[in-house]
Amino acid sequence: MDRRGVMAAAAAMGLMPALAQAAAPRAGLRVMSFNVRLPLDSDGPNRWDARRDLFVETIRRCDPDIIGTQELWKIQGDHVIARLPQFSWFGVDRRGGHGDEHMGVFFRRDRMRVVDLGNFWLSDTPSVPGSISWGHSYPRMATWGLFETVAGKRLWLINTHFPYRAEDEVARSKCAAAIAEWVAKRPVSDVVVLTGDFNTGPESDAHRILSGRLDDAWVAAPERKGPEGTFHGFSGMPGKRIDWVMARGLTPVAVETVDFGRDGRFPSDHFPVVADYRWP
Fold first, then answer.
1. 276, 224 contact by CB (below 8 A)
2. Which CATH class, in words, describes the domain spanning 28-278?
3. CB atoms closer than 10 angstroms to residue 75
């Protein structure tokens, strides 16, 4: 689908309404990155229908302005919107439709509106839905949006999910280079925020590449809360820090890895990351 088609579809879905006049502008910007974990019956007690209300509660507690999700299926996105109607979401799946994993972007409709949006694939043919390069197993992509807040401030949000296998380190570096190139094409004065599950740690080449364009909130924020690691496999025991929020043009104030759960159950197999920023 070309950009005109994407924007027309977004308008039809109500993603670009006029800003709610009653909404008071927030002093800063709160960004969340959250790997949803796709709905699999084989997850047993951690299957989606057993944790979906906990997932919604996590978002409600954190009260983000904007969320980049990974592994999101449409049924999950629609459930979140049904329970939290102050949000909208957009995105296509990694094959270009709506029957697979999305890099879904959620935003508060009363706090900001979508100016433009789009997708590209992390491959040698970025405009081809479902395209794969560099030896990894599944299509990988990025979904982005240009937003304007009720206070008239603009930001770009780009959200992604990198290949997961240990042998995909070169592919992850190439994915990072593609994201960094996209960021570099935005005007230098523009605010850009990146969310994602990068399936590698901060010691990686992918992190080094992206850190050349964006500041990692976990590193740059003066206040940190929660465990450093983000992947826990539904155990609650944090492993590697593979989920990041990065930005340029904003001042990081605080960042938290949110390890909220109840009775040994968690909303996902990843802890979400929430970063608070101050506008320039």
1. no
2. alpha beta
3. 13
Q: Around 102, how many Cα atoms within 13 Å sit in the side-chain half-sphere?
A: 22
**Contact by Cβ (8 Å): 193, 156:** yes
How many CB atoms neighbour CB 118 within 10 A? Answer: 19
Beta strands across the sheet bearing 105-108: 87-90, 105-108, 66-70, 28-35, 273-278, 251-257, 223-225
Q: Specify the pLDDT at position 253.
A: 98
Residues in the chain with pLDDT values less than 70:
1-26
Q: Which helix (H) or strand (E) holds 118?
A: strand 112-121
The helix (run of H) or strand (run of E) holding residue 121 is: strand 112-121
Question: What pLDDT is recorded for position 27?
Answer: 87
- Do residues 139 and 94 lie in contact, with contact meaning Cβ atoms separated by under 8 Å? yes
As to burial, measured by CB atoms within 10 angstroms (0-12 exposed, 13-18 middle, 19+ buried), residue 80 is buried
Cα dihedral 105, 159, 48, 92, rounded to 10, equals: 60
The pLDDT of residue 12 is 40
pTM for the whole thing? 0.92
Cβ count near 78 (within 10 Å): 11
Q: Which of 280, 236, 235, 277 is nearest to 258 (CA)?
A: 236
* Residues 269, 71 contacting (CB under 8 angstroms): no
